[in-house]
Automatic annotation (TrEMBL):
Native organism: Phytoactinopolyspora halophila
Domain Peptidase S9 prolyl oligopeptidase catalytic per the UniProt entry, residue ranges: 73-281
Protein name, per record: Peptidase S9
Coiled coil, from the record: none
Keywords: Hydrolase
Gene3D superfamilies noted in UniProt: alpha/beta hydrolase
Alphabetical list of PANTHER family matching this protein: DIENELACTONE HYDROLASE DOMAIN-CONTAINING PROTEIN-RELATED (PTHR22946), POLYKETIDE TRANSFERASE AF380 (PTHR22946:SF9)
Amino acid sequence: MEQEFDGGDLQVGEVLEDAGAYTRYEVTYRSGDLTVSGIMNVPEGAGPFPVLVLAHGYIDPEIYTTGRGLAREQDYLARQGYVVLHTDYRNHAGSDDDPENEVRLRLGYTEDVINAVLAVRESSLDYLDGERVGLLGRSMGGGVTLNTLVVRPGLVNAAVIYASVSSDAVENFDRWTRNDPESSELADEIIDAYGAPEDDPEFWRNVSPVTFFDRVTEPLLMHHGTADDTCPIEWAHDTHDALDELGKDVTFEVYEGEQHAFVPQWQDSIERTEAFFDEHL
């Protein structure tokens, strides 16, 4: 919250695909001292078009390729007339490396999303409408989205999250790091750096977006399935209830029997997402 963000220098590179309704490009932009890669789908026509910045869920950086993640959303939303900028994040694909990112609880991803929006807003590309920018995050990217809303209120016009991680950092740390034998070394590094949640609860409160939900100013749409065994729906209920109690503009769509991948009811969810962004952007 205290640091300055200066994202910019959005560069459009090679054409990756001509999909008819839109063209897919390689892009890079500046995030602090790093260059971050991604893709951008630009609809056919003159524009300017509203822009959606997409924050993907966890994919092992060792196998990740540029633009991988949220493929259905990238395609659908571009066909509805939105420019879609999908950030790779640092340490992914063609982005620069940040060796401290894991120990820093991946907060660098939040920096990269904030800077992606700033890069859009300050871009001179005439087909980008920098006054109409939305944010969509899935799973881990849902947490990145929640972080963004509390770190930089007013940065975007509206946000959508799918099957998000918890808004309480302790629940995420316990589920995927402290209780995972393969992550024991990382867990020890994090505890050495900041203290365990039970020993330094103030630190862990201060890296949890739920602590700062009073700062949220944007309307938020949440999608979550009742059968999600990756991110339990109880987390979504807790996030929704915390926002609702503060009088925030939050809509919570529950999908009975839907799992983390959102397959059977994805079409319903994306049509609701489109309508939400149409209303607010």
